[in-house]
Every structure is written in structure tokens, then in C-alpha cells.
């Protein structure tokens, strides 16, 4: 159900995403609405908060709000909710009320063919809450209990807020090896380190180290593995 964001997906690709959402949907990270010509923006914000938080708790990158699909039987009925320009405006409108001003990753209009007739369905791609920061809608935090929308429980709030923020620079690159690093860059790092420390005994120590020992000392290698910072 992930979309490659480098390229704009085709209608056929979006139809496949929609089909998978209907067949393999997870109650708490996907919500289906008929949403004919209009839908309460405040309700959209509440679902945005809830789906964003639930996606975080399930270690997913995003969740979905789908307009034009009847919830009870997942029948594709189509939606006339806003035009393309109106959907672009909605992104900004939602960001006004969310924690950190986040909004939809993307809003897709997809046109599946049902009974020989094209139906308009809208896929709102909602980002998971940021690590340790629950997503609120006007300072209220929402969650899901099955298909029900309600306040995020205290336990779930604590789980999100208690998450450890990962330091990207310290994360390991599994396929990287010492041979992939520029020898001149390592030499320059040694010289800069010696100059910064400005101690003769430290300079001697650094000169006596292998590249792996030196990089490990600077935490650019951890347990013999290359980190993002080293690259």
C-alpha cells in the first residue's frame, strides 16, 4: 500500500492501491467515507489526528482516509467532495489545526471503473505521528478503537511520548564497509582532530591508530559498522 513518491502514480496504480485498501484494510489506520458533495472539515481533522497516531503506534509510515467508498460494505460509490484546487487548499486548512502544522503527504484522485462507469474516489495519505510527538487537532489528541473515533487513551499518549528519538547520524548502514570511505577524508579528519585537541600525546595516539580505531573513537563506526555520519 506504499506509493513511490518520486513519480506521480498512474490511475491504474492508484486503483491497485484502492483495491488493496478495500481488501486488506486495517480498521484503525484506514477510514472509508461516502462523503458526497461535502464533509465536515473538523471531522477530517479529527480523523487525521487519529489515523496519524494509530499509524505511529503500529510502526507504519502512514494511514489513509478514503472518500467515495461506503464504509459498511466497502462499495465504491464515488464522491463529489471538492475539486482538485479545493483539495490543494484543504492541505493548508488542515495544517492550521495540527501539531507542528503537518498535513497530508498527498491527496490522490482515482477513477476506478464500476459497472462500466467511472467513479471518483479520493485517497488522503496521512503521515504517521512524528516520533515522541502525538498528532493533535486543535490540541485534542484522537485515536481509534476499532472503527470508533475518540480520544487517544492516556496509555497510548504515553507510549508515543515515551518513544526514543533516533539519532540519524548514529544509525548503521548495513552494506557499508571501511573500503567505501575516502582515505583522504579520513586523513583530513585525523589532522583536524589533532589540531582541535592540540595535545602532543593525543596526536601520537591518533597517529598510532588504524582507520577503524580512529573512526570508532569518534563514534563514526560502532561495533565495526559504518554510521550515516561517517558517510
Brief synopsis:
This protein has 231 residues and is of the alpha+beta class. The protein folds into two domains: 11-165, Methyltransferase, Cobalt-precorrin-4 Transmethylase, Domain 2; 169-226, no CATH class.
Explain this structure:
With 231 residues, this protein is α+β, with helices and mostly antiparallel strands. The longest helix is centred in the N-terminal third of the chain and has 17 residues. α5 runs antiparallel to α6. It has 2 domains: 155 residues, Methyltransferase, Cobalt-precorrin-4 Transmethylase, Domain 2 (2-Layer Sandwich); 58 residues, no CATH class. It has a 4-stranded mixed β-sheet, sandwiched between helices. It comes from Candidatus Pullilachnospira stercoravium. Pfam families: SLFN_AlbA_2. This is ATP-binding protein. GO terms for molecular function: ATP binding.
Features:
231 residues; alpha+beta; Methyltransferase, Cobalt-precorrin-4 Transmethylase, Domain 2; three-stranded antiparallel sheet; 7 helices; 11 strands; 35% helix; 18% strand
